[in-house]
C-alpha cells in the first residue's frame, strides 16, 4: 500500500465508527474503551501463550531468565 499522507480506514474500523455513533455519554465511551482493552489484553495473552508453547518456554525458563545477570561491561 502506498503512503499518500491520508489514512484509509479498513472495513472493521469503519464498522467501529458506525457503532460509535450510538454512544451518547462519556460513561458509554468509557465502557466501550474498557471492552476494547479487555479484547486486546485477551488477544495478547493468547498470542503469548501460543509463542511460549511453540518455543517450548516453560515457567522454569521464565524464572531462569529473570535470574540472569547479563550486564554490559563498562570500560574505565
Mass-distribution shape = elongated
Poorly predicted regions: none
Classify the beta-strand content into a percent band: under 5%
- Residue share in helices? 55-70%
First and last CA, distance: 49 Å
* Helix/strand order, N-terminal first: HHH
Average predicted local confidence, pLDDT: 89
What does this structure look like?
By secondary structure, the chain is an all-alpha fold. The chain is built from three helices and no strands. It has helices at 11-20, 26-54, 59-67. The longest helix has 29 residues, at 26-54. The radius of gyration is 21 Å and the shape is elongated. The termini are far apart. The mean pLDDT is 89.
Provide key terms for this protein:
76 residues, mainly alpha, elongated
Topology of this protein?
Layout: H1 11-20, H2 26-54, H3 59-67
